[in-house]
């Protein structure tokens, strides 16, 4: 398996992975599928903002991707990033998320970011445990901030200090 920076050719697989999660999970608090053009614009904006988009690829097929961006859009937050990692449903439980997060943390440290934040659906015990293995700590839970599949959703914020 190879972890590399994403290219335009990867956008179609990225949108496929994202749309599956939108339609079938509470991993993404959104209702509407993304179009290819929407995801392409997202990709170009990430490149323009110098924010990484990486993919896990095996035998030429993208199995997952990860990215991060500035946590909030004000100047004082410029050292804090929030990350996202998604693995295709066919490729789960193969260590892909671990490889993607390891690489994102490495990139963030190399770019002198101070902290990395994860917003995790509070019912997703697997993702919470996954982040804890990397040293993320639970900071707080926002109660009933999302609504999807006729259910109120709690959002758990987790944080990893990158620079001590």
TrEMBL record:
It holds the Pfam family Acetyltransf_1. One of its GO terms (molecular function) is acyltransferase activity, transferring groups other than amino-acyl groups. Gene3D superfamilies: 3.40.630.30. Keywords: Acyltransferase, Transferase. InterPro entries: Acyl_CoA_acyltransferase (IPR016181), GNAT_dom (IPR000182). Residues 1-158 form the N-acetyltransferase domain. This is N-acetyltransferase. The lineage of its organism: Bacteria, Pseudomonadati, Bacteroidota, Flavobacteriia, Flavobacteriales.
